[in-house]
Automatic annotation (TrEMBL):
<dbReference type="GO" id="GO:0005886">
    <property type="term" value="C:plasma membrane"/>
</dbReference>
<feature type="domain" description="Acyl-CoA dehydrogenase/oxidase N-terminal">
    <location>
        <begin position="43"/>
        <end position="123"/>
    </location>
</feature>
<protein>
    <recommendedName>
        <fullName>Acyl-CoA dehydrogenase/oxidase N-terminal domain-containing protein</fullName>
    </recommendedName>
</protein>
<feature type="domain" description="Acyl-CoA oxidase/dehydrogenase middle">
    <location>
        <begin position="127"/>
        <end position="197"/>
    </location>
</feature>
<keyword id="KW-0472">Membrane</keyword>
<keyword id="KW-1133">Transmembrane helix</keyword>
<dbReference type="InterPro" id="IPR013786">
    <property type="entry name" value="AcylCoA_DH/ox_N"/>
</dbReference>
<feature type="transmembrane region" description="Helical">
    <location>
        <begin position="88"/>
        <end position="107"/>
    </location>
</feature>
<dbReference type="InterPro" id="IPR037069">
    <property type="entry name" value="AcylCoA_DH/ox_N_sf"/>
</dbReference>
<dbReference type="GO" id="GO:0003995">
    <property type="term" value="F:acyl-CoA dehydrogenase activity"/>
</dbReference>
<dbReference type="Pfam" id="PF02770">
    <property type="entry name" value="Acyl-CoA_dh_M"/>
</dbReference>
<dbReference type="InterPro" id="IPR006091">
    <property type="entry name" value="Acyl-CoA_Oxase/DH_mid-dom"/>
</dbReference>
<keyword id="KW-0812">Transmembrane</keyword>
<dbReference type="InterPro" id="IPR009100">
    <property type="entry name" value="AcylCoA_DH/oxidase_NM_dom_sf"/>
</dbReference>
<dbReference type="InterPro" id="IPR046373">
    <property type="entry name" value="Acyl-CoA_Oxase/DH_mid-dom_sf"/>
</dbReference>
<dbReference type="GO" id="GO:0050660">
    <property type="term" value="F:flavin adenine dinucleotide binding"/>
</dbReference>
<dbReference type="Pfam" id="PF02771">
    <property type="entry name" value="Acyl-CoA_dh_N"/>
</dbReference>
Length: 222
């Protein structure tokens, strides 16, 4: 049974590799030449993300039970490795979305899961706001706070660095919600923009932002 799944995963990766084209032939988003030129400009090759979306890579980020294609990690791992062999930045872009989505798939409510799934399947990206410039990955030293008010939640703090922050619609943020309690909160950044709430760079807040019902606590971490 395991061999059968692994074989299907390898076939999927081989299909994706064919779609990416011959890396030795310039002029395609995933050729070695175009990848290096774009990397020197600190950007993705034109058309790279669109090609992966048209193939359906983003469907591998969403579990089958809520409309996606994710059945096991073999397929996602081998597909990600196939992309990374051509362009690491493109692989990290989708990997960052999956990192942000994973807590929602594990602990989110049905409504949160469906909201995120619909967005990702529509081609949106997500980011995971975890570390802070002053504390790195020392989570117990997290200064970003999450507090409730009448109509929702308020997130106060600054997260850095945040992969995908410049393109993400969704953000999963780690914040202090009590003296010895922490929470993960799902923020729909598109919802914030629609309500004209003042926001700096996505989830890099320097002062309090009231996020209302667009921020939903996913879980508490004691």
């Amino acid at each position: 049974m395991y061999r059968s799944k692994l074989s299907a995963a390898h076939l999927l990766a081989a299909e994706l590799d064919t779609v990416l084209g011959d890396p030795e032939v310039p002029g395609s988003p995933f050729s070695f030449r175009d990848t290096v030129l774009a990397d020197n400009r600190l950007e993705l090759p034109p058309g790279a993300r669109q090609l992966l979306v048209e193939w359906g890579f983003h469907h591998l980020l969403v579990p089958q039970r809520i409309g996606g294609r994710l059945r096991d990690f073999d397929e996602l791992f081998l597909a990600s490795r196939t992309v990374a062999q051509r362009n690491m930045a493109a692989a990290v872009m989708f990997g960052s979305s999956f990192l942000a989505a994973l807590p929602i798939w594990l602990w989110g409510t049905t409504a949160q899961q469906q909201r995120l799934a619909d967005g990702l399947l529509d081609g949106a990206s997500a980011c995971f706001a975890l570390s802070e410039e002053e504390h790195g990955s020392d989570l117990r030293a997290t200064e970003t706070t999450l507090t409730s008010f009448d109509s929702g939640w308020s997130v106060t703090g600054r997260k850095w660095p945040v992969g995908n922050a410049g393109r993400a619609r969704f953000c999963t943020a780690f914040a202090r919600s009590g003296k010895a309690e922490f929470s993960l909160v799902l923020i729909d950044l598109a919802g914030l923009a629609a309500r004209a709430v003042e926001v700096d760079a996505p989830i890099r807040h320097r002062r309090r932002k009231q996020t209302g019902d667009h921020a939903q606590r996913v879980c508490r971490v004691a």
